[in-house]
Design goal:
222 residues, Rossmann fold, 11 helices, 9% strand
Length: 222
């Protein structure tokens, strides 16, 4: 049997994951997602045991297809925090020659945030833009609403064009608002995946990207 890089490495691990997905499918109830979108939502539910993501998760048209194509082409992933980069499977990323980047703790980012009285997350996104990582890349935000607000600003004011923005910051200050702003962006301009409201987090971003990687491998093998 051909090894599938985006699945668990052992038979026991694969069986547990497949059984878990079957339970999610059985208990989730009806939904309006496409087959491909459900692969993303299902894995997010699997990662959190929270069925509210069946409904809270929203997709721009063709967002999943855009993310899959970006991964197949080896587009970089720019995250707002290190936790996302650490959580992603290195073998799965290497299979597609995808690199991950985050700049939240860089000394120049911290210094600039202090000088401008902004946040490290804002300056990290600006650094990523200066390094030409955002245009055509996947932006993955699970923690910092200000990072997502800055990306939306760059899309609107600087004509930034990421391949996909996964906007899932968690929290109480500007989290829901930042995701609402992203979802109000013209879908012809930028594909996005968001979670409505305050819920979110790095775990969900990692789950969504792993789902996209699995879809990319399936397309590669077709």
């Amino acid at each position: 049997m051909k090894n599938i890089v985006t699945e668990q490495l052992t038979h026991a691990g694969r069986q547990i994951e497949h059984d878990s997905f079957a339970i999610v499918d059985a208990e989730a109830g009806p939904h309006g997602y496409s087959t491909e979108e459900w692969q993303v939502v299902r894995r997010m539910i699997h990662a959190t045991a929270d069925f509210e993501f069946n409904g809270l998760t929203q997709f721009a048209p063709q967002a999943v297809a855009a993310g899959v194509q970006a991964l197949l082409s080896g587009a970089p992933i720019v995250a707002d925090v290190e936790m996302i980069c650490v959580g992603l499977s290195t073998p799965r990323l290497n299979h597609f020659n995808v690199t991950t980047h985050q700049f939240i703790a860089d000394e120049d980012v911290i210094a600039q945030a202090k000088a401008e009285n902004s946040t490290r997350a804002v300056q990290a996104m600006r650094k990523a833009q200066r390094l030409n990582l955002l245009d055509g890349g996947i932006v993955a935000i699970g923690n910092a609403p200000t990072a997502l607000l800055e990306v939306v600003r760059m899309v609107r004011e600087e004509k930034l064009r990421p391949a996909l923005v996964i906007g899932m910051p968690v929290g109480f200050v500007s989290a829901a608002e930042s995701k609402a702003q992203l979802s109000e962006t013209e879908t012809e301009t930028i594909p996005w995946i968001v979670i409505d409201g305050r819920k979110g987090g790095s775990t969900l971003v990692v789950a969504a990207i792993h789902a996209l990687l699995a879809l990319a491998e399936a397309q590669q093998a077709a």
